[in-house]
Amino acid sequence: xxxxxxxxxxxxxxxxxxxxxxxxxxxxxxxxxxxxxxxxxxxxxxxxxxxxxxxxxxxxxxxxxxxxxxxxxxxxxxxxxxxxxxxxxxxxxxxxxxxxxxxxxxxxxxxxxxxxxxxxxxxxxxxxxxxxxxxxxxxxxxxxxxxxxxxxxxxxxx
Amino acid sequence: xxxxxxxxxxxxxxxxxxxxxxxxxxxxxxxxxxxxxxxxxxxxxxxxxxxxxxxxxxxxxxxxxxxxxxxxxxxxxxxxxxxxxxxxxxxxxxxxxxxxxxxxxxxxxxxxxxxxxxxxxxxxxxxxxxxxxxxxxxxxxxxxxxxxxxxxxxxxxxxxxxxxxxxxxxxxxxxxxxxxxxxxxxxxxxxxxxxxxxxxxxxxxxxxxxxxxxxxxxxxxxxxxxxxxxxxxxxxxxxxxxxxxxxxxxxxxxxxxxxxxxxxxxxxxxxxxxxxxxxxxxxxxxxxxxxxxxxxxxxxxxxxxxxxxxxxxxxxxxxxxxxxxxxxxx
Lengths: 158, 330
Description:
Helices cover 29% and strands 41% of the residues of chain A. Chain A has helices at residues 15-25, 56-68, 95-102, 134-147; strands at residues 2-10, 29-35, 44-52, 72-78, 82-90, 107-115, 121-130, 151-154. Chain A starts with a strand and ends with a strand. Chain B is α/β, with parallel strands linked by helices. At the A-B interface, β5, β6, β7 and β8 of A face α12, β9 and β10 of B.
């Protein structure tokens, strides 16, 4: 699980090392670190980190340890990676309603529909979902489309 | 070694022709190599000193040749008349017969088996591979999946330390032809199918291909052979391509995708129409087949080739040479 953290460290030597200790102690793997030493604000330097923790608990424990060291945390949140998925749907259905009512966490990016001479509808659907939810979304979409007698064609990448 | 061809249809006949053409290459490996038998559904012809191949190739119906015995092909296997059989009878995925009985008997007698026949492999893969192992003989089936594409040989010889994580492929040339025509010519499924039937690419009853049964058989063999699973045809989810409209293909095309019938081995086994980016190595057209492997070490490998027809002889002949190299005493 990746987390984004922004700390405000006093502009004094050794502060960064002090702040990294609780992260290391709790098994955090630092993916990126931006230390803006040349832009201190009222004697504090903002440090932005992306850290991979094995669990939410180890992230929480790190925050507690940082607070107990007197380090101020400007921002902390989970980084949710999103994936774009493309589908073609053959057969008519109210896609927008289905997404709103049945598929939580899905952002509809683009819909394109065409109708054949015989009245059949084909829809191209582009959605964005949290990366770890992609499989669930596809399964749910498959279920809904088959309930409605439509055919779902997902991309090979998922 | 003495070879017999069981099943003397399109593949059997063409195989015999190619073996004849390549005889000097084969005899470099096994100087005693002989074709001693050929069988069709009516009986077989046998000569322990080697058949007159030229006569066989030019004869339309081998049952009319002198020396033809109207006895089951099983007798060729039963009476220790050969060391290798090529089992090329028609695929039957309901009970695997007559191929299954031929292969079972051959392996139980220690006769090496080479087969492009999917039926017995789909129905009894584990049983047959164990029987081969027990009797110290080879069971090779390169021609059974994706024709000339050397997928089993590649994994057996060149990816011995790799673990295959995922596999997906275009495993049926007929559906690829239909979907390619729909993609390029913007015609309907019905017209593309009719065209494929007229060209002899699709059968009059196209369900075996278009409903994904053929591709599902191949997924079963690939899963069992390459990934150590023990799955049956009913474990493969199938979605037909019958529902795909020309509009759906045009919409996909506009977004730089093609729609292909893809067989997938992942957590689940599936044969279903999927969108493939047109620049993906798997996105091949016409009657071509393609297999994309994901492994722990090599990461990604794609193989492309012809999945049916005369090209399959390449796979069968390579299997024969493999057995000869392994088993011929120098």
